[in-house]
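Per-record layout

source: Brevibacterium salitolerans
name: DUF3710 domain-containing protein
length: 287
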Amino acid sequence: MGLFDLFRKSSDPAASGGSEDALPEDADARSAAQPSAADEEAPAEAEAASGAAAPDDEWAPDPKEGPRDRAENGPFDAAEAVPERNRLDLGAVAVPVIDGMQIRLETEGKTDRILAVTLVNGKAAMQLQVFAAPRGEGLWRSVRTELAESIRKRGGKADELYTELGHELVSQVPVRTKDGRTGVRITRFAGVDGPRWFLRAVFSGTAVTEASERAALVDLFRGAVVRRGDAAMPPRELIALTAPAAQSGGAAEEARAASDAGEEKSGGPDDDDLNPFERGPEIAEVR
């Protein structure tokens, strides 16, 4: 496993220009928003499973969404049969690790609460966050809708795909590149509704444009194990992660110092309008 860092989060860097995954406007942004050969159109039975529209005077909860084989192939709940694999235990979620991969923890500036973990493999990145959810209702459908509306209000594009992970949202947001040109930042959001939890992934960099590099991170996503706990929590509440015991002491302090040194460089306008949750960052890129 490669570097392990703690990043102190002061504001959401997703809105700032000059990101390394920002593509020039004339790049193949359109192709990145199209289904790959592995992607599928949503099957008719998947639509039927959501049920017919309820009458105006009758409320129906959103169904839980995610891969059809989630229980067998992940992401897993800790109470399920989980295959053996080398994982890093972060408390609320344990994530598989591979050689050469960087693991970056993103913390809340004032409290050092760990809000997210980002797995970086080469130029491909995937951020993971865990949220509390109702037992009998899915969150991903409503979150996806709110995200798309927020992205479009900012002048971006938001399109849905149906992939091996279920429904995904492709975001294309205008940015200013380092050389002053207008570009577009492309990210893909995936969500899985589990038993009383919601796990969200944000793919960026070459995980959006290169099928093989996306597949490597999708494999890690499917291998994740969520440990929600039994405590009562309101739906959509962010479940904070915990740093591994091996990172306590000097290594963690050095990582925090590096995070503090880079904090001013990673600042940018707030993206609270992109956040369908009441707590936690919506888009967080690691530079």
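summary: The first strand starts at residue 4 and ends at 9. The two ends are 19 Å apart (CA to CA).
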